[in-house]
Write the structure tokens for this entry.
Amino acid sequence: MGFDYFYGQQAEMFSFYRVPKVLFTDERFWNISTDAKLMYGILLDRMNLSAKNGWMDEAGRVYIIFTIDEIKGSIGCAEKKAVKLLDELERKCGLIERKRQGLGKPNLIYVKNFVDNSVDNHVEGQFLNCQNDNSGTVKNTTLELSKAQGNNTDTIYTDYSDTDPFLSSDFQGREIEGMTLREQYRLYFVEQLEYEILKTRHPYDIDILEEILELIVDTVCTNRKMIRIASDDKPAEVVKSRFMKLNSEHISFVLDCLKENTTNVRNMRQYLLAAIYNAPLTIGCYYDSKVRHDMSGGFFHGKE
């Protein structure tokens, strides 16, 4: 069987599983096989889909459902090996945790995030040196790191990629070199939310639209681990995942709610944050209730 060469950017036509480099360089993971490390990469890929679909437990932890048959098909192996790979990841290094549902239902698989526990003191020192640049609340988050901080090219730090999986797929093939991470997110949301169309749709709300856009970008760029939503602290990754699925209809809904609100809003930023976060869950019920109201008291009763 003969295969052709790659020309130009043809290599970008494929989808890839991303296996963290640290699994091969950190001695804590030398006791698991290469196949188990590949399986971890496949599970991470499924995590992105679960996050987009909102598969989270009551504590905000993302889980996946990946049956033995699906594992067999994903890497072309027998059932015995599929079971062995999961056992390696769970028992040898704790990279996953399985929870039984019972009643013949498949197990829930929690893919563990090992980054916080694997960063050594050298890297922690770097974080401490720049804490004045990128710590604090969402409201006071500095948009760009100081020039004095410079580029971090330490080989240990590069084991932990800060490339956002959503951005890497949606902006694949684009020229975004020289842009800060915040600028990349802003570009993403300008397109994802159809921002220019929203401004045309709501010409008298451009100021509040700009505030909503900046609030969304600030939130997904925060370094905090918890974000307060309506007096409830939620994991930042859960909030970020919800925000990445927003669209223009959700923003129009938030504007409608803001106009219909008759109470005195003391903290507009917190009010908007809660409204944006809850929009994907409440938009359907809101418009359904309006339709029922119109049908019961409007046209069908001779009113206009």
The radius of gyration is 23 Å.
